[in-house]
Write the structure tokens for this entry.
Amino acid sequence: MPPAKKRARTYDPGRTRTAVLAQFRHVHAAVRTLTPAQLSGPTRLGTWTVRDLAAHLTMAVESVNLAVDRPAPARAERGPLDYASATARHADAIAEGTHTLAEANPDLDALYARVEERLVQVLTDTPPERLVATRAGGMTLADHLVTRTVELAVHTDDLNDAVPGLDVPLDRQALAACTRLLADTLAARAPGASTEVRVPPYAVVQCVEGPRHTRGTPPNVVETDPLTWIRLATGRTDWHTALAGAKVSASGERADLGGLLPLMS
């Protein structure tokens, strides 16, 4: 997929930084409470155990540290909207790295502490406009941090699904940035203005080719909540299941998004 031509919106670097740190700390606090039996349990991510998932969450943040350690690229080739397709291309390598990291770090509490200490240092010392090399290509540190909110929000939801009663909180700003980025990714992949997708209270985008809506109630409207939206966008649930469960409302002949989802594939 070619790089996105433009940013759908801007994100405040300070708020994104705070959101990434807050969500990582929420997960760390929860992982510290997990028993060996819980860590060996299954997840909805194929062969991944809870231990694998917990280790992967540190990889999502450690990627910031590693990106800053590498030489800066000559230019910003990509932006947050390129993140979903880039992640899908590297799925096998990511899975292999996740299993290796989990096996090499039996003390997850210590792993989280090391990653967080380094992250705080990196975010304190590195300006948000610094260019970094990522899996998606060269982008600013600020943009890379926006993609980290997706990793953290999505996998926090995976962790909550895998361990009943864990209830790791979702930082509001992290969830907002994740929701908006995935909504904007849909709009970039299916450009147009015939369908309005609403994910209150965080995002509203127009997409899908067809007659442009200009005033009044749009003829094609999709509405859902943030968690259902990120599950749809990342393949944790499918369009027809969400509709059947009344997790999504869709009205109008161009309101079927089933063929456009998931986005991270």
User: Anything to note?
Assistant: The chain is about 50% helix and 10% strand. Confidence is low (pLDDT under 50) at residues 1-7. Residues 12 and 84 are 21 Å apart (CA to CA). The first helix runs from residue 13 to 31.
